[in-house]
Specification:
Homotrimer. Keywords: Glycosidase, Hydrolase, Lyase, Manganese, Metal-binding. This protein is an alpha/beta fold and about 300 residues long. The protein has a single domain, classed as Indigoidine synthase domain (Indigoidine synthase fold). About 50% of the residues lie in helices and about 15% in strands. It is built from 14 helices and eleven strands. The mean pLDDT is about 95. The structure holds pseudouridine-5'-monophosphate. The site of pseudouridine-5'-monophosphate has 18 residues, from helix 3, helix 13 and helix 14.
Length: about 300
Amino acid sequence: MSLSDRIRLSDEVAAAQADGRPLVALETTIVTHGMPYPENVATALAVEEVVRAAGAVPATIAIIDGAIRVGLTAAELEELAGRKNVMKLSRADLAFALATGRPGATTVAATIIAASLAGIRVFATGGIGGVHRGAETSFDVSADLYELAETPVTVVSAGAKALLDIPKTLEVLETLGVPVVTVGQDVLPAFWSRDSGLPSPLRLDEPAAIASFLATREELGLKGGLLVANPVPLADEIPAAEMRAHIEEAISDAEREGVRAKAVTPYVLGRILTLTEGRSLVTNIALVKNNARLAGEIAVALQATAG
Ligand code: PSU
C-alpha cells in the first residue's frame, strides 16, 4: 500500500488543499483520553467552528481502519469517542495502529507527523506533553518534545500541562532547538493558569510576526517546529496558587496507584477534574478554543506570507 492510500482527506480538507486555503490540524487524544464524554465530542466540534471563524479549515486527525484520517465527520468523532479500545498513539506506535487496523487517537507527536504528511503546517491543542515530575528516576519524557524538534509543524498550546516539570520541559526544548514563543505576555503560561512563574524564552504578539519568524527559520533551513504558548483568557483561568495543591494531590494519587507511562496524563487530568469539581474542564475547553482561534490566525498569516 502506498503512502497516499494511507492518508485519507475528508472532502472539506481535500477541497481546501486544492484551493490553497489555510488549514489547522487538530488532535484526538484530547477527545478519547483527555476529556469526559459528552464534553469531549462537543468541544472537538466547537473547536472546529472556531478554526472556521478564524478563516481556516479544521483537519481533525485520527487512525481509523488502517488509514490516517485527516478531517472527520461529526459521526466519526462520536464513534471514536464511544469506543473502548482506542490506542493513544505517538511516534512509536502510529504505524502499529495502521498495520493492525486498531483505532487510534493521535497525541501531539502523532498529530505533528500526520499533519506534516498531509502538508499542514499549523496545529492547535490544549497543552503539550513534556518532562514529568520525577523524570530523573522515571525517565518519563513525552515524545511530543522530540517530534517538535524533528518535524516542521507549529503547535499552538497553552504551554506545557502544569502537571509536568515545566522548568525541565523548557530545558529539553532548548536543548532540542525548539523555539518557545509566548503570545501577549513575558511569562510562560501553565495551561490552566496564565503564569507559570517562568520567563518565556521568546515573545511575539501578532500572528503575522509568528509567520515571519517561521519564514526566517525556513530560510535558514532549520528543521523542526515551533511551540506557541497562548495564555488561557483571564476570565477562564484557575490561578497557579490554587492549582498547585490539586496537581500535587493528583500526582501522589497516581504514584500510589502505580499509574505509569502513557496512563499518567489521562489519570492525573481525571483526578484534577474531580478535585476542582469540574472547573479544570471548563478551563481546558476555554483554552483549547483560544488556541484554535490563534492557530487559525497564524495559518491565515502564513498563507499571506507565502502568497
Ligand atoms: N491537551 C489537552 N488535553 C490532552 C492533551 C493535550 O488539553 O489530553 C494530550 C495530547 O495529545 C498530548 C498528550 O500529546 O496529552 C500528552 O500525553 P503524555 O503526557 O503521555 O505524553
